[in-house]
Design brief:
Layout: H1 3-37, H2 49-53, E1 55-61, E2 64-70, H3 75-80, E3 81-82, H4 93-99, H5 103-121, H6 136-154, E4 156-157, H7 163-166, H8 170-195
Antiparallel strand pairs: 1-2, 3-4
Helix pairs in contact: 1-8, 4-6, 5-6
Length: 200
C-alpha cells in the first residue's frame, strides 16, 4: 500500500465515523423536539438504517485512485430536506411513530383538545358526553395521517448531517496531502529504479 492509499484509507475511516456521529446527533436533537411536544416520547432515535449503510471503498481504476462513499439512496432527503409532496403509501410512517413512543403523548394531547373544544361549544352548560382517549390503533392511524398531510403540504427541513461534515475543509486538506504524497511516491519510485538491482 503506497502513501496515497494510506491517506485515503485514513480519510475514508474518519469520514464514515464522523458522518455516523453527525447523523446520530442530528437525529437525537430531532427526537428530543418530538419528546417535548408529546411527553413520554423517546429522545433516543434508535438504530438508524442510514447510519449503518455508510461505508467507503477505495477504487483503483484506469482513471486513478478514487474514494467512494456509499449511503442509502434517501440520504439527500435527510441532509437537504424534502419539498412539499405526497408520500408513498409504502412508507412505514406508523413504524416510525411507534419507535418514537409518540402515541401516549398524542393520545393525551388529542383528548385535551377535544375536551377543550367540547367545553367551548357547550354554551348552555348542559351535561356533555364523557370523552375518552383514542384507542392505540386509532391514534396511530390519526398521527400517520397528520404526518403525511404535513409532508404533503410543507415537506420537512434537512438536518445537514453530511454537508456539515464534508464542507468543513477536510476535502481541501485531503487534496493537498495527496499532492504531497504523490510527489513523494514518485520520488521513491525514481530512486528505486535508478539505484535498484538494474544498476548492478
Amino acid at each position: 500500500m503506497n502513501e496515497v492509499e494510506i491517506i485515503l484509507e485514513a480519510f475514508g475511516t474518519k469520514v464514515v465515523e464522523d458522518l455516523r456521529k453527525s447523523l446520530s446527533e442530528k437525529l437525537q436533537a430531532r427526537a428530543a423536539s418530538y419528546k417535548s411536544k408529546y411527553p413520554g416520547g423517546s429522545s433516543n432515535p434508535g438504530d438508524s438504517a442510514l447510519s449503518a449503510s455508510i461505508k467507503y471503498l477505495i477504487v483503483d481504476s484506469s482513471d486513478g485512485i478514487k474514494l467512494n462513499v456509499y449511503l442509502n439512496d434517501y440520504w439527500e432527503a435527510v441532509d437537504s430536506g424534502r419539498k412539499a409532496a405526497g408520500v408513498s403509501q409504502d412508507a412505514r410512517i406508523d413504524k416510525w411513530i411507534k419507535s418514537r413512543n409518540l402515541i401516549p403523548g398524542f393520545q393525551k394531547s388529542n383528548l385535551e383538545d377535544r375536551i377543550d373544544t367540547q367545553n367551548r361549544l357547550n354554551k348552555t352548560n348542559r351535561k356533555t358526553k364523557v370523552l375518552k382517549k383514542m384507542k392505540f390503533a386509532d391514534a396511530v392511524k390519526a398521527m400517520d395521517f397528520l404526518v403525511r398531510r404535513k409532508l404533503k403540504n410543507k415537506g420537512y427541513q434537512g438536518n445537514q448531517f453530511l454537508s456539515s461534515v464534508l464542507e468543513d475543509g477536510r476535502q481541501e486538506k485531503l487534496a493537498t496531502d495527496i499532492r504531497l504524497a504523490m510527489k513523494k511516491d514518485i520520488e521513491i519510485v525514481l530512486k528505486t529504479n535508478r539505484y535498484g538491482d538494474n544498476n548492478t
